[in-house]
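Give me C-alpha cells for this 264-residue protein.
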Amino acid sequence: MDNIIAIAAVILYATSIATIIPGLVQHIGIRAKTVFISAALALLFHAWLLSDLILEGSGQNLSILNVASLISFIISVVMSVAMLKTRIWFLLPVVYSFSAINLAVATFVPNTFITHLEHNPELLLHISLALFSYSTLSIGALYAIQLAWLDHKLKSKKALTINPNLPPLMMVERQLFKIILIGTALLTLTLATGFVFVQDMFAQGKAHKAILSFIAWVIYSVLLWGHYQKGWRGTRVTWFAIAGATLLTLAYFGSRFVKEIILT
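Here you go.
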C-alpha cells in the first residue's frame, strides 16, 4: 500500500512540475489551479506516507531518509501556500522535485533509526525547532539563488525578456530577508533548547552539529546585520545564504549520512 501511495504522490508532483515548466520556458500563462490541486493532493499522500514511515509502533523512525522526506514536505507545504500570493514558479519545480525524490527514496530504501520522543517532550521541542529552522533557511537559500538569477538577468540587459511569471527583484529581496530573519530566530531557539535539554550535545559524534549550527547562526546574524545596517545586497547576500544552509546541511545530515547510508 505504501508503494502505491508513494507512486501516486510522485506522479502528482510531476504533474505540477509539468504544468509549470512550459510557462517558464515559453513565457505563457501557467494554470495555477492545476498546479495547486496536483500539489495539494501530492502533499496529502506525502503526509499520509510520512505518518506510516515515521510513526512506528515501537517509537518514531527518524532515519535520515525519513527526516529528509519530512523536511521536503515542510518546504513544499510552505511554498505551495506562498504560491497563492506570490509568483514563485521558478522555485516550485525544484522544491517538488526534491519532495518526489526524497519520498520515493524513503519508501523504497528501508532505513531505521528508532527514537522514543513520547518520553522526552523537551527533545521533541528541540527537534521540531531544528526541522522548522532548517526548512525555513533552506527556503531562504532558494530565494537567494532566485534573487541572484534575476539580478544577473537585469545586469545583462535582459530585463525586457524576463518572464512575466517571475516576481519583481525587489519583492524577492524583501521576502528573502523576512525568511532569513524568521529562520535565524528559529535557529536561535534551536540552539538554546539544545544547550538546555540535550545533555550530551558536545559528546563525541555530536559536537560537530552544535559547532556547525553555531557557525551558521553567526553567518546569518552577520548577513542580517550587514543588510539592515550596511545595506548589503547582491552576490554577497547569495553566498552568505548558501553558506549558512550548507553548514546546516552538514550539521544535520553529515555524520548520519555516513553512519546510516555509507556504512550500512
